[in-house]
Amino acid sequence: MLTYPDIDPVIVSIGPLAIRWYGLMYVFGFGVAWWLARKRSADPRSTWQPQDIDDLIFYSALGVILGGRLGWVLFYGFERLSDDPWMLIRIWEGGMSFHGGMLGVVIAATVLAWRQKRHPADIFDFLTPLPCIGIFAGRVANFINGELWGKPTQSALGFIVDPSGLHPVQTAEAKRLCTRFGIDPCVLHVHASQLYEGVLEGLVLFAIMWTFTAKPRPRLAPAGLFLVCYGIFRFVVEFVRVPDESRGYLLFGWVTMGQILSAPMILVGAYLMILAYRRRTPSGNWQAMVLPSQQPSN
């Protein structure tokens, strides 16, 4: 098995100011998304201009941060809000929901579509490959924070987590898991579910979406594929991830909140792809051209 590395969640601290890996990964993710969007907009076939990209990333960042935090509080931490209302703004401590962030981006993108006079579906399609590297970076930050661990395992891919000598944040999370699983002395052997998610929801999903959107696709096909792939990846990893302590298993002794939120993504995504390929409406992200299926036969 692998040994969990002793990485301080705080990169540097100057008085009350602390720069954390968690926040840095968000900055990195938005920066990469901006660069990728600029790169895609540079394609001569693209209808996107560089100034459009700046607005897109700004609106998306607001949607991710506000939606992600509100979603986490609603789905996972609502009970704590009355006792500690300031938790809502302490994002640096962790606690962001991908599903809430995605809903926030949908709302933000819809507002941007109205301002830029674009079809909302075109913005959704254009966005699909952009957050993936940021998702990977965020899961690495979860790993560094020592949170969202997987279930106990003896697999060679598992990690040995010894809370002695770790940062207080990591130690506290490890001890909570030891208490939940009745492990004494407290030395964990667990799946690194954060990294599983980072690879699947981040790197693999990016490869799929960047390749798929490299040429014109029917409107809503990229959005549908993103929902299907992310939903499947998240649903599968939830089998080895420890469910949130405040929720536990919600159905049948094995269904988690993450799976309940991901299942509709798969269904809606499949529906959108079927609808997209039946209608074959050209995407507004590309200069007007004929899709292969619409070319006249000789």
SS element count, helices: 10
For the CA atoms, what is the radius of gyration? Answer: 21 Å
Number of domains: 1
Number of beta-strand segments = 5
Mean pLDDT: 88
What is the string of SSEs from the N terminus onward?
A: EEEHHHHHHEHEHHH
The main β sheet shows up as: 3 strands, mixed
Give the strand line-up of the largest sheet: 1-4-5
The end-to-end distance, rounded to whole angstroms, is 62 Å
Helix content: 55-70%
Low-confidence regions: none
Shape: globular
Summarize the structure.
By secondary structure, the chain is mainly α. The chain has helices at residues 21-41, 50-75, 78-81, 98-116, 120-127, 132-145, 168-181, 193-212, 221-237, 257-279, and strands spanning 2-3, 10-14, 17-20, 159-161, 188-190.
Short key terms for the protein model shown above:
3-stranded mixed beta sheet, mainly alpha, 56% helix, 10 helices, 298 residues
Your description of this structure?
This protein has ten helices and five strands. The chain is mainly alpha-helical and 298 residues long. It has one domain (2-286). A three-stranded mixed beta sheet has the order 1-4-5, covered by helices on one side. The radius of gyration is 21 Å and the shape is globular. The mean pLDDT is 88.
Itemize the secondary structure elements and their pairings.
Blueprint: E1 2-3, E2 10-14, E3 17-20, H1 21-41, H2 50-75, H3 78-81, H4 98-116, H5 120-127, H6 132-145, E4 159-161, H7 168-181, E5 188-190, H8 193-212, H9 221-237, H10 257-279
Parallel strand pairs: 1-4
Antiparallel strand pairs: 2-3, 4-5
